[in-house]
Protein 1
Amino acid sequence: MSLTIRKVAGALGAEISGADLSANLPDGVITQIRAALVEHQVIFFRDQSLSPEDQVAFGRRFGPLNIHPYVRGMDGHPEVMEIIKEPADRTNFGGGWHSDTSFLERPAIGSILYALELPEWGGDTLFSSQVAAYEALSPGLKATLESLSAVHSAGQEYSPQGHSAQKRTSMSVAEAEGAVGEFIHPVVLVHPESGRKALYVNPAFTLRIEGWTKRESRPLLDFLFEHCRYEGYTCRFNWRPGSVAFWDNRQVWHFALNDYPGQRRYMRRVTVDPA
Ligand code: SIN
């Protein structure tokens, strides 16, 4: 089986053809897909047909699957998250720049999203390379950031006042009960497979720099959040039914556009944890 890999933008993203993700792919093909993910940060496949079992089986080739602490999985498939926006919904899931589950002690390494139903127009997903964002910084700021860690929490999204817990009818998103944990991650992450460095803070889940107050952290985080979404670091994926996006949360942010009022969008995601 030979894969064809075609870059889609300068900073990140590649479309791969020649693989049927529902098949029990040989180890060599999985190795090629993993290498493409590490190199291109987000990879795309078209014209797939995946049952929940197929998606789980494919995801497990890359590591154990996460069961989301706040979003209830499919009946019988707790690792499969249904990401649904119904015509009456005003908000969407993932409608802000973030890196999946950075609020956990051991955040997800990858996410595999499969499209089943799409609006007639809109509903694209944006990705931003945090490798490119890191590399564009001055040597002085890089050195400063490499000495820092940041505090992440699910509170802004999943507490009773959080964005995701509110006004949603189509997805079962639980409010975090009691105190939401805070976990500390380096501001600059060194990728364990490539050794490449990437910024690892995001507007949804990063609260402050460790050892700094929220007020002290704000100017630096605001600068980074603005810098990290610069258009030149991004690519945009236009979904079709059967499309799959597989992104590396250690290298990219993503943003689900909410630009299709009155229409339905239905996706399924599995999320790969570190081994
Ligand atoms: C997400 O995983 O954040 C949702 C992405 C999307 O629905 O495009």
Protein 2
Amino acid sequence: MIKLHDLYFKTFISEQELDATVQRMVDEIANDLQDEIPVFVGILNGSFMFVSDFVKKYPKPCEVTFIKLASYEGLKSTEDIQRLIGLTQDLSGRKVIILEDIIDSGNTLEEVHRIFKNEHVDELKIATLFAKPESYKKDFKLHYVGKEIPNKFIVGYGLDYNGLGRDLPAVYQLKTTQHMTNIVLFGPPGAGKGTQAEFLKDKYNLVHISTGDVFRYNIKNETALGMLAKSFMDKGELVPDQVTIDMLNAEVEKNAGAKGFIFDGFPRTNAQAKALDNLMDAKDSQIDAMIALEVDDEVLVGRLLERGKTSGRKDDADESIIRNRIIEYYNKTAILKDYYAAQYKYYGVDGVGSIDDITERLNAVIDKL
Ligand code: IMP
Ligand code: MG
């Protein structure tokens, strides 16, 4: 992922794919032109890299020239095309192939046709590396198209966002959701997850999604997903991951403008971790870290027994139940630790000390992400 000015872009088309695409266009055009010496006309600025690679690959003699037009402002195509440099040579009787980086609305192409209207060229053909069919509004034929792409803003390989990105050798696509920091928060019972989640939420403007709360909310409010989940629970069956993921998805969508999420209580299995990765991917985002609060068993037992004196929670009162919960936590999370460690996303944080000290340790991890 890259950042240009205020926006984030994700990898879209690799150098290898660009190279293969340009080669395919060269082959097709060279085959059509046979022994005719063409004039390739690049449309500056965006096409400079494409034209350069194209003519280097072109197997026969050719001429190259440029015209310079400007239409884009930021992320939008404008109607008003400026002719900055026009044709500087006589092209009458020649076979002309326009080399464009991208055809979007077709406004620029219309201007190109206007420029060539009285040039008496033998033939005018249009070759564009990229085309966005969903936004193309003109009737001019596009003779050669390298790749049709969705109507999303791209940069790289000559294309810019307000001046930046032209130098990139690959192509990147604007992320529809802007950058989020997403954390999976782990910790054995008594580690202080809830307390710390509250601080993180405020400091980083994150939304805390506790799977337990999400379940209770959906069931209590009898949402469609809640009823579905309940139907499995009533049969004594585990709720399928997809149902849980759909509930989390609804939470994520409810908070579309969030700076990120803290997932608490999910994932618990490898399959769930993968499903969560897919969900984040669909949102043009990612899980950045699994942060596990590490607390010694004896400290946990002490804390929970202490809490049990006032909380009234039965499972906090019995030492053997507490120890079992801790053992179960380690059994379950070991695989997830491996899952995230394999992606260099596992961070163990010492969860013993004052609340402030622990918060500071967590902040140090997140600030580095
Ligand atoms: P059109 O006039 O709307 O067809 O747009 C053509 C010109 O707009 C291209 O030559 C580019 O300079 C610019 N353009 C269109 N789409 C993009 C994009 O996704 N990224 C960067 N520039 C673009
Ligand atoms: Mg252009």
